[in-house]
Design a protein that fits this description.
It contains seven helices and seven strands, in the order βαββαβαβαβαααβ. It is of the alpha/beta class and 244 residues long. Helix 1 crosses helix 7 and helix 3 packs parallel to helix 4. The radius of gyration is 18 Å and the shape is globular. The N and C termini lie far apart (46 Å). The model has no long low-confidence stretch (mean pLDDT 95).
Length: 244
């Protein structure tokens, strides 16, 4: 299927994990894909980016336009997580989480809007089920992802009349390299995999390509009447009540 021929896409944090799967899926379907993150991405045209610096987002968009001439699809995927109880979290750590997970997407969207207006392009933000619920010690992460979900709706409302759509995907437990390494660090990885699988009605965790498939659908013309929505990709985890 070639849905993105002659389209230019930017995927932040596209060098690994979910971002890499998204970048690969868009490229497989014909897009010219750029990624932006710390360090070089040898698989795609990459733009070095440090997203806790507020000048970076506009620089990334300007560089992409200089190289590609236009922008059709923006995928805000880059993010970070810090674990700490609220009482132990410094203001600096709190602000850094919000800077990377929420302010950077806002600034990227702000810089991209003039170009997306020309192409009637669209935006897909990568939120989280932790923007809907919370795991312990994730206050900053949860707040930033909930904010990103809200930003998604606001952009859809404010810019829909210009032909710009904005949706978000909220993944649950996905088997990225980071999560796989975390499981492998456990005393009994096999037991942990069984336990984590049991909290999902589908009895397993997710794969990056499954998130990428939904992102590709939302970025394509076939979803032209969908905007301002948050799509949960979690194997039914958020739908399952705990036992009484």
């Amino acid at each position: 299927m070639i849905r993105f021929e002659n389209k230019v896409a930017l995927v932040t944090g596209g060098r690994s994990g979910i971002g890499q799967a998204i970048a690969q899926r868009l490229r497989d379907e014909g897009a010219h894909v750029f990624t932006a993150q710390r360090g070089e991405d040898l698989d795609f045209d990459s733009i070095p980016a440090n997203f806790d610096n507020f000048s970076t987002p506009s620089q990334v968009i300007n560089t992409l336009i200089e190289q590609a001439g236009k922008l059709d699809i923006l995928v805000n995927n880059a993010g970070m997580m810090q674990e700490a109880p609220i009482e132990d979290m410094s203001v600096d750590d709190w602000q850094r989480s919000l800077a990377v997970n929420l302010t950077a997407p806002f600034l990227l969207i702000q810089a991209a809007l003039p170009h997306l207006r020309k192409t009637r392009g669209n935006i897909v933000n990568i939120g989280s089920i932790e923007g809907l619920g919370s795991n312990p010690g994730h206050a900053a992460y949860c707040a930033s992802k909930a904010g990103l979900h809200g930003l998604t709706r606001a952009v859809a409302v404010d810019h829909g009349h210009e032909g710009i759509r904005c949706n978000a995907v909220a993944p649950g437990w996905i088997d990225t390299d980071l999560n796989v390494d975390f499981i492998d660090s456990m005393d009994d990885p096999a037991a942990f995999r069984r336990d984590i699988g049991k909290i999902h009605p589908v009895n397993r965790t997710g794969h990056p390509k499954e998130v990428a498939a939904l992102v590709a659908f939302l970025a394509a013309e076939e979803s032209a009447f969908i905007t301002g929505q948050i799509y949960t990709v979690d194997g039914g985890r958020m739908a399952k009540l705990s036992l009484p």
